[in-house]
């Protein structure tokens, strides 16, 4: 999100934030301005492209034994999203009611049910990965359908309009409009896993070149992996591993081996490491706390791996490394070759 993006978003919010009234009169202008704020291409005029794959008021036919009816989705892009708009109010009962009241909540629930019926209609070529309702002037409610299901109304994620000033939220909406599959959790996990494996493979190869035994390398890397994972899911509090790497071990590589061994010994028993209280990690995983002396370059490789989203790493990474250890093979050898 650059300065120009920020300027467009601020202009959009100045115009629309807190607005209230009639969504039928406002929604096309609102979504057109929203596209401008995101810096993405807006929909062409309806009817100008065969199939209206990206348009306002998308025709969706419903068939029964007796009749055919046509309904209209407010905003639709094939393979990307389907949106139903409403518009509540802050201080009155304009539009779909005062925000927060039962009348308003019922209207938003109805919008979800309506959008869901459109998305699951077999007339559409694919299930949109994102289903959204929008209270113009207030917020979006977002559901993901990568699994083929959106879940109930309670599964929504609410994103307030003023959250668009946050880079993460801005980028997410841009991706929904331009490359929704980049947000697919399965594909994201696969990408993170490949990146993690690539980083740790560098360290594994270096350790092999130093003549380290494969099972020793595997044990060491497994301890590193579990520590990074534990920190990412906040079993290990205070980013103790990340901060130590960045602030102590990379600037002073000779401190790495004794201090990481001390951390792992504390994880085995529970206790205090620096200013942080460390939980006891049950089992015997950290009974062997042996580490290696690593030069600055290899600590930087380890730090690059730490920066990945470890809660998203495929569980097979852990399982496969254990299998390789038992076989006394290079821990990032044949199993990971297709990923590198």
Mean of pLDDT: 84
Structural class: alpha+beta
Strand content: 5-15%
The overall strand count is 8
In the CATH hierarchy, the third-tier topology of the largest domain is known as: tt1808, chain A
Helicity level, as a percent range? 40-55%
Number of helices, where a helix is a run of at least 4 consecutive DSSP H or I residues: 10
Give the CATH architecture of the largest domain. Answer: Alpha-Beta Complex
Report the principal-axis shape: elongated
Number of structurally distinct domains: 2
Compute the CA-based radius of gyration.
26 Å
List the helices and strands and how they pair.
Elements: H1 3-16, H2 23-38, E1 54-63, E2 68-77, E3 81-86, H3 102-119, E4 130-135, E5 139-144, E6 157-160, H4 167-178, H5 185-209, H6 214-232, H7 240-249, H8 256-269, E7 271-273, E8 276-278, H9 296-306, H10 316-327
Parallel strand pairs: 3-4
Antiparallel strand pairs: 1-2, 2-3, 4-5, 5-6, 7-8
Helix pairs in contact: 1-2, 5-6, 5-9, 6-10, 7-9
Structural description of this entry:
By secondary structure, this protein is α+β, with helices and mostly antiparallel strands. It folds into two domains: 179 residues, tt1808, chain A (Alpha-Beta Complex), CATH 3.90.1570; 155 residues, no CATH class. The strands form two sheets. Strands 1-2-3-4-5-6 form a six-stranded mixed β-sheet, with helices on both faces. Helix 6 runs antiparallel to helix 10. The protein is elongated and about 75 Å long. The C terminus is likely disordered.
């Amino acid at each position: 999100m650059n300065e120009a993006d920020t300027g467009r978003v601020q202009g959009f919010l100045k115009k629309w934030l807190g607005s209230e009234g009639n969504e039928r009169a406002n929604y096309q202008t609102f979504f057109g301005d929203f596209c401008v704020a995101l810096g993405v291409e807006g929909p062409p005029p309806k009817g100008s492209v065969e199939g209206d794959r990206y348009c306002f008021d998308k025709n969706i036919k419903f068939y029964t034994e007796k009749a055919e009816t046509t309904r209209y989705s407010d905003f639709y892009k094939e393979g990307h999203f389907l949106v139903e708009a409403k518009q509540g109010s802050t201080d009155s009962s304009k539009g779909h009611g005062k925000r927060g009241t039962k009348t308003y909540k019922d209207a938003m629930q109805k919008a979800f049910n309506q959008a869901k019926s459109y998305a699951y209609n077999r007339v559409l070529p694919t299930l949109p990965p994102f289903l959204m309702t929008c209270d113009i002037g207030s917020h979006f409610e977002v559901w993901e359908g990568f699994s083929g299901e959106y879940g109930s109304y309670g599964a929504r994620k609410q994103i307030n309009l003023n959250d668009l000033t946050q880079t993460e939220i801005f980028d997410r909406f841009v991706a929904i409009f331009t490359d929704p599959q980049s947000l697919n959790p399965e594909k994201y996990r696969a990408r993170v896993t490949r990146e993690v494996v690539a980083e740790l493979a560098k360290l594994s190869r270096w350790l092999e070149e130093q003549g380290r035994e494969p099972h020793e390398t595997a044990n060491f890397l497994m301890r590193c992996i579990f520590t990074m994972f534990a920190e990412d899911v906040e079993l290990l509090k205070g980013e103790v591993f990340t901060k130590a790497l960045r602030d102590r071990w990379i600037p002073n590589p000779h401190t790495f081996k004794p201090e990481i061994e001390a951390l792992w010994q504390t994880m085995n028993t529970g206790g205090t490491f620096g200013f942080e209280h460390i939980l006891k990690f049950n089992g015997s995983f950290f009974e062997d706390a042996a580490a290696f002396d690593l030069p600055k370059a290899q600590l930087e490789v380890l730090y690059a791996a730490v920066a990945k989203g470890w809660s998203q790493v495929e569980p097979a990474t852990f399982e496969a490394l254990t299998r390789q250890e038992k076989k006394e093979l290079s821990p990032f050898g044949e199993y990971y070759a297709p990923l590198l």
